[in-house]
Amino acid sequence: MAEESVSATLTVAVDVARVFAVLADPTTHSAIDGTGWVQEAADRAPLTEVGQVFRMDMYHPGHPDGDYQVANQVRVLDPPRAIGWLTGQEKEDGHLEFGGWIWRYDLAPLGPSETEVTLTYDWSAVPRSIREYLHFPPFGPGHLINSLHHLAELAAPAPRARTNER
């Protein structure tokens, strides 16, 4: 049986609570994404509960419309250990339809200021009808590790300003 998920792991020099907070903020997702497809959070509220839906404005040159919007539904929320969402779309009648792929981040504290982050993209629940026109995974092998590096940069504490007093 062919692989139906891909994962990447990176240790970041940031405490687990801070990493989780960045992931739970949809406004950071475009900066984390390594493909350039995620444009902006249409729903900006922090992710706080399983079942919560948040929408993201997207762009992909291969999409029929170029610009489009996805609806994500939180499926895993275990602060500060794990967060994940299923991606789909909202139909004109407001009905949500999901494609079967999930993004999941698992966080393991390695100390007070270090976290192991594993990002998994799992398409095992994608129905055959969708697999007939979409290739999985829809990105190159470096995407997940690039996203983890972007996450590490975003979550890193801001450098303190230094003043020289005389």
Which secondary structure elements does this structure contain, and how are they paired or packed?
Elements: E1 5-12, H1 16-23, H2 29-32, E2 38-41, E3 53-59, E4 67-78, E5 82-90, E6 96-111, E7 114-122, H3 128-131, H4 143-155
Antiparallel strand pairs: 1-7, 2-3, 3-4, 4-5, 5-6, 6-7
Helix pairs in contact: 1-4
Which features would summarize this protein structure in a list?
alpha+beta, 4 helices, seven-stranded antiparallel sheet
3D structure, described in words:
By secondary structure, the protein is α+β, with helices and mostly antiparallel strands. Helices cover 17% and strands 39% of the residues. It contains 4 helices and 7 strands. A 7-stranded antiparallel beta sheet has the order 1-7-6-5-4-3-2. Helix 1 (16-23) crosses helix 4. It starts with a strand and ends in an 11-residue tail after the last helix. The mean pLDDT is 91.
What overall form do the CA principal axes indicate?
globular
- State the low-pLDDT regions, or none: none
Distance between the termini: 69 Å
Structural class: alpha+beta
Number of strands: 7
Order of strands across the biggest sheet? Answer: 1-7-6-5-4-3-2
| Helical residue percent band | 10-25%
Secondary-structure element order, N to C: EHHEEEEEEHH
Mean pLDDT: 91
